[in-house]
Amino acid sequence: MTAEEVAEELMVSQSKISRLENGRRSISQRDVRDLCRTYKVEDKALVDSLMQMAKESRQQGWWNAFGDVPYSVYIGFETDAASLRVYEPQVLPGLLQTPEYAEAVISGALPEAPQEQIAQRVQVRLRRQERITDPAAPLRLWAVVDEAAMRRVVGSPKIMSEQLEYLVRMSHEPHVTVQALPFEMGSHPGMSGQFTILEFSDESDTSVVYLEGVTSDLYLEKHTDVQSYSMMYEHLRAQALNVEQSRQFITEMAQEHARRHEQS
């Protein structure tokens, strides 16, 4: 069977099959089960053995040292990616968050989580940020951020002021681009919510669109889906302020939060 035939049989993208075969994507027990059925593997002992190997293989990766990370599949993609295009309507990009802002975001998103779990998630987020500062192969990051994410007081006005100042500093890195999308720009293609487009250096690896959910995440790899989101992103970049205007806009937001902190 060709990769195209397997992909059609399992109703997944051809790029997913290619990544599984080349070891560029972690494989789940469900993937192994489905592939065994497709390949008509009838030896139950062999299938069980392969599924156990898949379970053990997913324990690899630096993030596994932090225990059960719910979005480990995404971290695997992010670790392998050469560049990211991110649109954030509600919070500032995770790869550009300060520790204090990250803790406030995670605490608000998981109000019933114990402090140990929150601390663990913060550490994972900070570990992910090492890709941005990696001198050998820094991750190329382009982020379009809605004004709502800058105005929302996460943690405190002081935390917000320091976070936005940090965002401006990071935007001066040659491989980091940040654009602000003010309210006055009106409606835009990103109003349906956050999304991330991951691109890889290997030409055989097609781009992946990541949509974050509350209980499960969605990964889109079909060419038409990636193309649609890429077109949306081009419109977002066109409607957003340019880089210098964005820095000025974010700086003014930081100053507003700083004044609010002084008055409190």
Describe what this molecule looks like in 3D.
- Helix 1 (3-10) crosses helix 2 and helix 10 packs antiparallel against helix 12.
- The chain is of the alpha/beta class.
- It has 12 helices and 6 strands.
- The chain is globular, with a radius of gyration of 20 Å.
- The chain has helices spanning 3-10, 14-21, 29-38, 44-57, 72-80, 99-109, 115-128, 130-133, 147-151, 157-171, 223-239, 243-263, and strands at 83-88, 140-146, 176-181, 195-199, 208-211, 218-220.
- The mean pLDDT is 90.
- A 6-stranded mixed sheet has the order 3-2-1-4-5-6, sandwiched between helices.
- Residues 1-46 form the HTH cro/C1-type domain.
- Pfam families: DUF5753, HTH_31.
- This is Helix-turn-helix transcriptional regulator.
Note the quaternary state here: single chain
Number of helices: 12
Mean pLDDT: 90
How is the biggest beta sheet arranged?
A: 6 strands, mixed
Q: H/E series, N to C?
A: HHHHHEHHHEHHEEEEHH
Radius of gyration (Å)? 20 Å
Taking the alpha carbons of the first and last residues, their distance comes to 67 Å
Structural class: alpha/beta
Shape: globular
Spans of at least 5 consecutive residues whose pLDDT stays below 50 are none
Beta-strand segment tally: 6
**Biggest sheet strand line-up:** 3-2-1-4-5-6
Helix content: 40-55%
Strand content: 5-15%
Protein name: Helix-turn-helix transcriptional regulator
Domain HTH cro/C1-type: 1-46
InterPro entries: Cro/C1-type_HTH, DUF5753, Lambda_DNA-bd_dom_sf
Organism: Streptomyces cuspidosporus
